[in-house]
Write the structure tokens for this entry.
Amino acid sequence: MRFLLILLFFLLVTSCKNDASTPPNQAETHFTSTKWKTKKGYDYPYREKLLDSVVYNDTIRNLDKEKILTLLGMPDKANDNFLYYNISEKRLGLWTLHATTMVIKFVDDKTIEWIKIQE
């Protein structure tokens, strides 16, 4: 019984991870168009780390629709003045359990009204 408690305690301690102890790598979070467009299967492996670099970037917010399409590539979905870029999906087989999408809304083809994260 004592051995089992020690083993359980050891597993608990070693499985805990402190995210604050590992700062994000600058190279992983630095935006590049190539990383943003990279797709492996159905997933975009870099978009989750690059998301803040796009959403909170004033330079990107001042681009017109044509330049956004050049920089970010074709959206996963487009509807009227909205562009939808898939960021990440958690799936169980064919079912999507959780999805994160970046949505860009244009007032016209020249002006971005807002960029939001939809979960």
About this structure: Helices lie at 2-15, 26-29, 33-37, 47-55, 58-61, 65-72. Residues 88 and 100 are 5 Å apart (CA to CA). The longest strand covers residues 95-106. The chain has six helices and four strands.
